Amino acid sequence: MLDCHCHLLDTGVPAAVFFDSLSGCHVTKLYCNTTGASQWSALTAAAAHYPQIIPFYGIHPWHIRPAMAAADLQLLAALLEDDHCFCGEIGLDRLCATDFSLQEELFIRQLDIAMGTKSFVAIHCVKAWGRVLEILASYQGKINFMIHGFHGSREVMERLVAMGGMISFSNRVTQPSRQRLQDVLRVTPLENLLLETDFPVHKGDKGDKGPGLKKYCQIITPLYLFVSRLRHVPLAELVQIIDRNGSLSTY
Ligand SMILES: [Zn+2]
Predict the structure, then answer these.
(1) Is 109 helix (H, G, I), strand (E, B) or coil?
(2) What is the pLDDT of residue 207?
(3) For residue 159, with 0-12 CB atoms within 10 Å meaning exposed, 13-18 middle and 19 or more buried, which class applies?
(4) Is the pTM of this model over 0.85?
(5) Three-class SS of residue 54?
(6) Ion ligand 1 contact residues with beta carbon within 5 A
(7) What is the pLDDT of residues 66-111, one digit of tens each?
(8) C-alpha 201 to ligand 1 mean position (Å)
(9) How far is the CA of 231 from the centre of ligand 1 (A)?
């Protein structure tokens, strides 16, 4: 199985401990995202050891450091010169404290870098679909991207798909209260579909004590099973589809 969005460096344990915990589920590759420059060298070191890691470098809207932005962007551009490195996670978030125009500036500058280095991009969007769609339209045909943890409407999904975007669903879609999102998943073209854990998105997922790492397999396996049932696609076939979709973007 491919996990199209997680945060290895936020698990609170060394990569070796994390990868040991994956023996309970068959995860072959993970898109490991970062939220700022302070995580980039650790990700590079981990990716050199673990071929399962697909590294994503980016400045998340929650973690913008205005005074460091110029230096961070320069470093990002250098990292993304490598064909095996990708851009994420970046985006816009109306619920975070960071000034929105600063978020927009960093989002656009990172998209410019991704366009220049032909890097696939992982995008975060909270309550800012109008602006994200507007900005992405100006890059149409110039960047390849995925929306991570998609929770928008069918109309937004269709507009993103029309731009060639990949739509990634997290296990949030399995919750009984998410009927509307399940309806969107039902009609998302299979060739644009990705699946992700967003691990460790919940506080209880962090650290090696308690449910923590054990929970990883309890997120990814049920998610794939749920989507397999919802889309009437056998699990083995779904695993292949997601793997192929991911391969086209990043391998
Ligand atoms: Zn994330």
Answers:
(1) helix
(2) 55
(3) middle
(4) yes
(5) strand
(6) 89
(7) 999 999 999 999 999 999 999 999 999 999 999 999 999 999 999 9
(8) 8
(9) 25
